[in-house]
Specification:
The complex is a heterodimer of chains A (286) and B (291). Chain A is an all-alpha fold. Helices cover 74% and strands 3% of the residues of chain A. In chain B, α3 (23-48) crosses α10 (215-228), α4 packs across α9 and α10 packs across α12. The chains are: A mainly alpha (286), B mainly alpha (291).
């Protein structure tokens, strides 16, 4: 198979995973103004939890959803018990989420040891699918499809439901939303859990491609940061476009300039920051 | 009184190698001083300019790597120090222009990203940084013909640099500037001392690796500043001493330093946001039931 074709497929797959990860990050940041530095840990923790569930004989998709739920529960606890105590204290929130990310990383190291764990591709999705004269690896194709389905679902949730309308109101003007009777604090918990679930789920379905290893969290978090800075925080479309930009930059950067892959990745972000600090799809700060 | 206390502290600090007893503790004292210089540099941004940075290990690391490379090319200590600091300041100027596009959270996120770029280079640009294996140097240099090989000599040299750093902080804080300019200058000033600490770190360990520029390192340094209490001269120094001592004591007993670091972070931020020293006083009062 052509190298460029493979790279493009890998880029789309990574973009899909990044979308699941960064959509939650972006929503949490947009609504709650919390830069959740545990988001990479949620991704890794989801993947690790799923490996334990898989080892106990659960099937892949059950494990993915369940691991996501466990991570979401942890997210809810963190939000209720800790972040709630620090309203509006952005610095404190950064530090607490960073501290928690260290604790989660070290706890994972204790429980699952330092050896990388391979996650088997679910049986039905092994091999390749032919579309016309091109053969796509089926599982990678599935990730792209899942990302698109989730993007559509999240868009529908935000744009078409009452909950979505409340979340948008909370993003735009929390005080006003509160005055009109929206329980913003409950909204915060829901969005935080949703974001955590998406991250944990993404970690699991990323497992067969990335495998799970210590440091996965620190690898994914900066990517999510770049996506959100590129796309603009609080914007779903921004996350989607940003994720695929980063997916392509990362894979092509690594293939073409292996020693400078990170620089290639962060350079466009720096350009966006200088030219358009609010991100491609973000609104300028008031 | 203040002068007397200062003089007393100075004498006690100078005499450290004479009274702490073993080389082990002299070395820990040196580590504390290096960490304190770094923390003081970060405090310029965090405490006085209100800009929280999580990318300063990048600047610290640039200085250490640059010094190692220049030294291994056979240059003398003046070239090593000057070259390393100049390179750090150049990098810091670029960092500052970019990071100051954002304020508050934007600034934090940009510094994280910049720090990760440096980490990526340290880890991956193997022809320059030797990747994961890091770079070693052959022994400490001898500035002005004075050997730094012994722990006590190294401690005294570091103490001199430390005292200059403290004095420069006091002067810098007292000087008025234009707002953007002060932020930019504060960034450079902060980078300068981070770079100095980076060079000293290299001299001390005679080795540098990507682990120095990891996000954990930036966070650890920030913890020193926050733990001690920001916007004071003494806070970061106390914080640096605390973190270095805990790290050495804890890591002698258990492997899980990162878990401890995270837990300390969470506890301090949630229960003692103003820093350990004032926080402890407040908590003990509260426990005693005083109003």
């Amino acid at each position: 198979m052509n190298l460029w074709f493979v790279l493009a497929i890998n880029s789309i797959t990574l973009g899909g995973l990044l979308f699941l990860l960064s959509a939650g990050f972006s929503l949490i940041f947009g609504l709650m103004k919390i830069p959740n530095l545990t988001h990479g840990s949620f991704f890794m923790l989801g993947a690790y939890l799923a490996t334990s569930l898989l080892a106990r004989g659960f099937d892949f998709w059950t494990a993915a959803v369940a691991a996501g739920l466990l991570v979401a529960a942890l997210g809810g606890i963190v939000e209720r018990l800790i972040l709630r105590r620090l309203p509006g204290a952005e610095l404190a929130q950064v530090l607490v989420t960073l501290g928690l990310s260290f604790m989660i990383a070290d706890a994972c190291l204790m429980v699952w040891t330092g050896d990388p764990i391979q996650v088997a591709t679910p049986g039905a999705l092994r091999g390749a699918t032919s579309v016309g004269w091109l053969a796509f690896p089926t599982y990678r194709l599935a990730i792209a499809v899942i990302a698109v389905v989730f993007a559509a679902g999240l868009w529908a949730l935000l744009d078409r439901t009452r909950l979505g309308a409340m979340i948008r109101a909370g993003v735009d003007d929390p005080e006003m939303a509160r005055v009109t009777g929206i329980r913003v604090s409950r909204l915060f918990t829901i969005v935080f859990c949703l974001g955590a679930w998406l991250a944990g789920f993404a970690g699991v379905i990323g497992g067969p491609i990335l495998s799970v290893y210590p440091g996965l969290d620190q690898e994914m978090l900066p990517l999510a940061l770049v996506v959100v800075i590129l796309g603009g925080s609080g914007s779903l479309l921004g996350s989607l476009v940003g994720s695929f930009i980063v997916g392509f930059l990362y894979n092509f950067g690594q293939a073409m300039f292996p020693e400078l892959a990170y620089v290639v990745l962060f350079l466009p972000m720096l350009i966006v920051l200088v030219v358009r600090p609010q991100g491609l799809f973000g609104r300028p700060a008031l | 009184m203040t002068w007397l206390a200062l003089a007393g502290a100075l004498v006690a600090l100078t005499a450290v190698p004479l009274w702490v007893g073993s080389i082990y503790y002299v070395n820990i004292a040196s580590q504390i001083l290096i960490a304190a210089i770094f923390a003081l540099g970060i405090n310029v941004l965090v405490g006085y300019a209100g800009l929280v940075t999580l990318g300063h290990a990048g600047l610290f690391g640039i200085a250490a790597y640059a010094a190692a490379r220049i030294m291994n090319n056979g240059h003398d200590h003046v070239a090593v120090a000057a070259g390393a600091i100049a390179l750090t300041l150049a990098a810091a100027a670029v960092f500052a222009v970019l990071a100051l596009r954002g304020t508050g959270l934007g600034f934090v996120m940009i510094t994280v990203a910049l720090g990760q770029i440096v980490w990526g280079i340290a880890y991956r640009w193997i022809s320059i940084t030797n990747g994961d294996n890091g770079i070693s140097i052959k022994g400490r240099p001898s500035p002005l013909g004075l050997s730094l090989a012994s722990p006590a000599a190294f401690y005294w040299a570091t103490l001199v640099v430390f005292l200059v750093a403290v004095a420069s902080m006091a002067l810098f804080v007292a000087s008025p500037f234009h707002v953007w300019m002060i932020r930019f200058l504060a960034f450079l000033f902060s980078a300068f001392w981070s770079g100095v600490a980076g060079v000293l770190y290299l001299y001390y360990n005679q080795f540098v690796s990507p682990h120095v520029v990891a996000l954990t390192a930036s966070a650890e340094a920030l913890l020193m500043v926050i733990a001690g209490g920001t916007a004071t001269l003494l806070g970061p120094i106390a914080g640096a001493a605390l973190v270095v001592i805990i790290k050495n004591v804890v890591s002698a007993h258990i492997e899980r330093w990162n878990f401890m670091l995270g837990a300390i972070f969470v506890v301090i931020v949630v229960f003692m946001p103003e820093g350990l020293v004032p926080g402890t006083i407040r908590l003990t009062r509260w426990l005693r039931g005083a109003p």
